[in-house]
Amino acid sequence: MKTKQWMIIAFFSAIPFFSLPLKAQVTVGELDKPNPDAVLDVRSKGKLGLLLPQVELFSTDQARPMTSKVVGMIVYNTKTVNDVVPGFYYNDGDKWVKLGATAVGKIYTAANGLTLSDTEFQLGGALTRNTTISAAGADTLIISAPLAITSGNPGDGYVLTSDSIGNTSWLSLPKLIEKKFIISPVETGDVHVTNEDLVLVDPDNTTHTLSLPATATVGRLVYVVNVGQKAINLSPLPVNKTYQAIDAGFAFMFIYAGNNQWYCVSGL
């Protein structure tokens, strides 16, 4: 009889505990209370890691080895097959997505004209920052579409030029010739052509000689204009003409063919 009484007392004493809501939050690894916002708080005093389930996925579009696609499921794939490689994957309800990879269909555009589409970078749009495009080895930058360069001061008939370090500027053709074409002062005596493109001569007597370079880049052109009243001799003589001198008021153009040979290609 006493045993039954104690059992009844114990049963009714336990009722309040069963009526209280059970808290499902758990701390693993330590005895401290879990974070109030975490259903599972895993701790290791900074010494251990969390080892998630390791599986062998078959492809991103198939649930296997799971029986179905569950949104939020996270696994570590250990196999390289089809379109999956080792790494962490989560399931979005339709497919497995590798953590750290760009989701398919997502497009991100940067401020410097670069667009990340899926896993590919694409160049397009306005370049708002300093940008360097360099080619390695035999690679080249090929532009097959119409090209418009509007920086600087372009103009009808202008030519885009650059200095020795690549700084560009627009120049009209006469200005470009004036800038790049080396013109000699008017020479009155013997003339030894070096790097001049246009040589002006006004010999003070007929004994003077204009000497073309013994060697030059094949294809180099030299223009000679006699603005004086007397002829000037030539050395070496052009191999294709019988001219031995440039008469007063005449202009000649010479081209170097190699082996110390100059050809006269025009004479006015």
Break the fold down into its secondary structure elements and pairings.
Blueprint: H1 2-19, E1 26-28, E2 40-42, E3 54-55, E4 74-77, E5 87-91, E6 96-98, E7 107-109, E8 114-117, E9 120-123, E10 158-162, E11 168-172, H2 173-180, E12 191-192, E13 198-201, E14 209-211, E15 221-226, E16 232-235, E17 245-246, E18 251-258, E19 261-267
Parallel strand pairs: 1-2, 3-4, 12-14, 13-15, 14-16
Antiparallel strand pairs: 4-5, 5-6, 7-8, 8-9, 10-11, 15-18, 16-17, 18-19
Question: How would you characterize this protein structure?
Answer:
The structure is a single chain. With 268 residues, the protein is mostly beta strands. Among the domains are: 49-124, no CATH class; 180-267, Jelly Rolls, CATH 2.60.120. 10% of the residues lie in helices and 29% in strands. The chain contains 2 helices and 19 strands. The protein has helices at residues 2-19, 173-180, and strands spanning 26-28, 40-42, 54-55, 74-77, 87-91, 96-98, 107-109, 114-117, 120-123, 158-162, 168-172, 191-192, 198-201, 209-211, 221-226, 232-235, 245-246, 251-258, 261-267. The strands form 6 sheets. The protein has a 4-stranded mixed beta sheet, with no helix packed on it. A 4-stranded mixed beta sheet has the order 12-14-16-17, with no helix packed on it. Strands 13-15-18-19 form a 4-stranded mixed beta sheet, with no helix packed on it. The longest helix is centred in the N-terminal third of the chain and has 18 residues, at 2-19.
Low confidence ranges = 17-22
Q: Write the H/E string, N to C.
A: HEEEEEEEEEEEHEEEEEEEE
Fold-level CATH name of the domain at 180-267: Jelly Rolls
How far do the termini sit from each other? 144 Å
* Number of β-strand runs: 19
CATH hierarchy: architecture of the domain at 180-267:
Sandwich
Helicity, in percent? Answer: under 10%
Query: What gyration radius follows from the Cα positions, in whole Å?
Result: 43 Å
Average residue-wise pLDDT? 81
